[in-house]
Amino acid sequence: MGARATRIVLGGLLLTVVMAAAGYSASGGSQSVSVAAAPGLDITVPGAAASIASTVPGSCGSTTSTINVKSNKVWNLQMRSSASYPNGKAMNGATEMASAFQYKGGDVASFTSITSTYANLYGSSQPKTATLDVVVSYQQCVSYLDDPGTYTIVVEYLGVQP
Length: 162
Hints:
By secondary structure, the chain is mainly beta. It has one helix spanning 3-22; strands at residues 41-44, 60-71, 76-81, 91-92, 95-96, 102-105, 108-113, 119-120, 129-141, 155-160.
């Protein structure tokens, strides 16, 4: 055989090998993968402080704040005054206001005095949500017994998945 005939035969064999390799496949099998989704609840309270404008004695001032809730189970939102305010009253240094700080929103339809014990803002059967803005209203009544000044109270929120 000549050189040309050898090239044609080798070329034909190479073509046959490539064609055979291109047409072959083998099953790799399958695998089941389980994913455990843990309960998740996020409560986001605005970073900026809420403020009630100057209020004259004998009247009440109010403001609102928006709390964001995300939960993949039924949930409940509770609130209280910080332990530093055990009587639920705003303070100027060590001086408490005469009246308790009040809130409403969610399932609480009228202004209610806050305490240092968690109380439901929403009941325990709220449906899961990707995001929900909860508007909470704050109110502080000013008395003639209150010294002029700036009073502060810290409100704490707790999300619960029963």
